[in-house]
Amino acid sequence: MTNAKPPPLPPSMGPGSPQDVPPPPGSFPIDPNTLPEAIRKEVMAPDPVAIDTSDAALKDGLNHCPKCGATEIRHKTGSDMLVCMYCRNEWQGKRVEEEFGLGTGLDDLSGTIIASGAADIAADAADLMSFKCSGCGAEVTVNTQSQMTARCHWCRHVFGVNERVANGAVPDAVLPFHIKKADAVARIRQFVDKRRLFALKEFKEQFTPENVIAVYLPYMIIDGKASVDVAGFGEIETRRYTTGSGDKKTTYYDADVYRVDRHVDFTVDDLPLESSGERGNLDVGKNTNNIINTILPFDTKNAVKWNASYLNGVTSEKRDRDVAHLLPRLEDQLLSIARAKVEPSMSRYGRGVRWEQERLDVHGTRWVSMYLPVWLYSFHQPGSKGGMLHYIAVNGRTGETMGVCPCSSGSCC
Predict the structure, then answer these.
(1) Helix H segments across 197-295?
(2) Is CB count within 10 Å lower at the N or C end of the chain?
(3) Dist. CA 194–CA 235, nearest whole Å
């Protein structure tokens, strides 16, 4: 065996891991024109533009009354106002659209614009957040999975999670409740009374509308600019005739078939999409989550900048879906909007139009994370595979009410 020395390394290479070795001349960058279209679009797409919606005045977790400095702040139900529980001073949060110009520029949207509260969720982000009380130095912990405020047990300062955190718990904006609990209870009771005749016996026995809870549900509110091309075939009936008689009578028709093409450019303003995977799961065999969609729309134009004091004493659910997760849902919604916009031009095709090709081009989007107010009543109906979870929901702004009453066997409510 000989102890031969290894050959010298080429001048362009050196010791270390492969990433330390420069690529051969001419191998980088890759020509995007050589890539498949779907990959080329992703590679060439500009990086998302961020909108900073944070409030530096609230980063210590304390929301002070502008008049007396107290931290005991609550939302005044029925309005968009905050009220100091010490001096009774009232003030209103700034509307997020006016503060960050979110209500303008739809025709100029390009690329992807993401507000800071809608940024991607860090996989290792914790739900528990700790604050050091500036009044007494104690540690105050808030579990952002279900609440956004907590009180210092020593000096009674009230803390709110106002700083942007990587776990998706802090949105950009919140739409405060207007409907009070007594009103929500009355609406739910009225809804059930109209369907009580056919309702499941156990449901009627256990029905307690006073158990309704106020919950802020997480949504992505999206502005967009898009173009859609659709192509298919439309039929215009020219003749109809019947042959045979009695049970053997058959009706036929003749029709002219036309190739139909349509192009539409449009913008969408404040399109809401659920950003909770649990609420977005529309499995009709296990839940009636789609009830939430039936109480839309919300007046999202009136949403105010995020302030945890609006959630004092109210339950909330945390966002767990990023922009990338919601893109397929957004594309479905945009295609549905486009079909609706071209429908008025289809009236001459009495036999209908069968769309066979669709193409969607999204020119620009703007994403804002928002909490929307819902009064929610639930009933679990036992059964196989975990049973069925029924909901009755009340829009916390308009009072619109919809739900499902579990029916007794052989009937429908």
Answers:
(1) 201-206, 291-294
(2) N
(3) 43
- In angstroms, the Cα distances linking 402 to 186, 198, 408 are 13, 17, 19
Q: How far is CA 7 from the centre of its chain?
A: 61
Q: What is d(CA 317, CA 279) in angstroms, rounded to the nearest whole number? A: 10
Tens-digit pLDDT profile for residues 166-222: 667 788 999 999 999 999 999 999 999 988 888 888 888 888 999 999 999 999 999
Q: What are the C-alpha distances in Å from 134 to residues 144, 148, 165, 242, 376? A: 21, 18, 20, 87, 36
- Output the pTM of the full model: 0.78
Using alpha carbons only, give the angle 89, 95, 99 rounded to the nearest 5 degrees: 115
Tokens of 179: 């409907």
User: Is 312:73 a contact under the CB 8 Å cutoff?
Assistant: yes
Alpha carbon distance 330, 222 (integer Å)? 9
Can you say whether the dihedral through the CA atoms of 102, 329, 308, 134 is positive or negative?
negative
CB of 385 closer than 8 Å to CB of 379: no
pLDDT at position 145 is: 67
Alpha-carbon torsion angle 323, 326, 332, 337, nearest 10: -60
Tokens, residue 100? 């960050």
Closest by CA position to 138, among listed 152, 128, 149: 152
Residue 56 · residue 13 · CB < 8 Å? no
Element (H, E) at 306: none
User: CB of 109 within 8 A of CB of 49?
Assistant: no
